[in-house]
Design goal:
Elements (H helix, E strand, L loop, with lengths): L2 E5 L3 E4 L7 H9 L4 E4 L10 H14 L7 E3 L1 E3 L6 H7 L6 E4 L19 H10 L2 E4 L13 H16 L5 E3 L5 H9 L4 E5 L1 H5 L3 H4 L16 H13 L4 E3 L8 H4 L14 H11 L6 H12 L8 E5 L9 E2 L5 E2 L8
Parallel strand pairs: 2-3, 3-4, 5-6, 6-7, 7-8, 8-9, 9-10
Antiparallel strand pairs: 1-11, 12-13
Helix pairs in contact: 1-2
């Protein structure tokens, strides 16, 4: 097959950041995605409707003038979030709120400590039809980093899903067989996103032959058996799994340092990389569901109508992308694996 035409896809999890960086990140995503769920972990975070809509306007100002790109905004849950914050925000333009356990990832220090204290907020979200997006890792420093996702399922995710059966939950950027199997065993109100890096790489690609900082992300890459399980579930065509890149830009000098930032900037080649995975798995017929249908269905949004054609031909990822402030970012999969 030399080309494939699919309904224009959406990215159900990414980071644009803010300020001048938007002029790079928004066009990179809008080139092939029609909608995107925009993470709210700015400094300060996006905590209410007014802040979300102001951020949306900054994103739209950076979008190409000839695009119909639509950012979908997300609230950042804190221990100070109120039921009124949820009721005022809930709607098509702000369909979700994000649970970060405090300290779990970039700019999450202001997030939630004591997850059970947010149960009244989860109840309001369920009533308002607002989705709960979860970064599913425990943050106890004594816990092995490769076990953080697995333990989160038992300690927090399973009880939340049981307590609020009508609340739609997206278990974001899953990395383990444990997570994939839990999602498959759960009811229809629980789904998951999967990133290109967790389908393409495992922890050997981070650690063997020297640490590769541009492959460092959170949740961290896991062993090969987990990678293979994720590849199996996307190849199965299950509607419980859909595209979410977790594209997360960092300046090159902040990645290549003694304490490098976590995140892979995949927007420049994400759809192509996903397509390569599905091609390698001999299941290109499953790509459109994963990339274009299942996320929209889970969010109860209309599927896109525009189409996009991918053509098989050699291509090279840019090694670096210069930024207006003199910095640069290194796209995911640009460096030798």
């Amino acid at each position: 097959m030399s080309e494939i035409t699919i309904t224009k896809p959406d990215d159900w999890h990414l980071h644009f950041r803010d300020g001048d960086l938007l002029n790079e990140t928004v066009p990179a995503t809008a080139r092939c995605f029609q909608r995107a769920i925009v993470m709210p972990n700015l400094v300060p975070p996006v905590r209410n409707r007014a802040e979300a809509l102001a951020y949306k306007q900054r994103i739209l100002a950076a979008a190409p003038t000839d695009s119909n790109f639509e950012p979908l905004m997300v609230l950042y849950l804190t221990n100070e979030t109120t039921a009124n914050d949820i009721r005022q925000a809930a709607g098509i333009d702000i369909p979700a709120a994000k649970l970060y356990p405090a300290g779990a990832t970039t700019n999450s220090d202001a997030a939630v400590s004591g997850i059970e204290s947010l149960y009244p907020i989860f109840e309001t979200m369920s009533e308002a039809g607002m989705l709960l997006l979860i970064h599913g890792e425990v943050t106890d420093p004594k816990t092995d980093i490769f076990d953080r996702e697995r333990l989160f399922i038992d300690q927090y995710l399973a009880p939340i899903h049981m307590r609020f059966p009508e609340l739609k939950i997206v278990f974001e950027h899953i990395t383990t067989a444990d997570a994939a199997d839990f999602v498959l065993s759960a009811t229809a109100t629980l789904a998951a996103t999967i990133t290109p890096q967790h389908l393409l790489l495992n922890r050997n690609d981070l650690l063997v032959g020297g640490i590769k900082p541009h492959n460092y992300c959170l949740p961290i890459l896991k062993r090969n058996t987990h990678q293979q399980r994720l590849r199996e579930v996307v190849a199965s065509g299950s509607p419980k799994f859909f595209l979410g890149t977790d594209s997360a830009p960092h300046a090159k000098h902040t990645k290549e340092t003694a304490c490098g930032c976590a995140g892979c900037y995949s927007a420049w080649g994400a759809l192509e990389l996903y397509t390569q995975v599905f091609d390698d798995l001999n299941c290109l017929d499953k790509l459109e569901g994963f990339a274009s249908f299942y996320g929209a269905d889970f969010y109860s949004l209309a599927r896109n109508t525009e189409q996009l054609t991918l053509t098989r031909k050699p291509w090279t990822m840019p090694q670096e992308i210069p930024l207006a402030n003199g910095d640069s970012v290194v796209p995911f999969f640009a460096v030798k694996r």
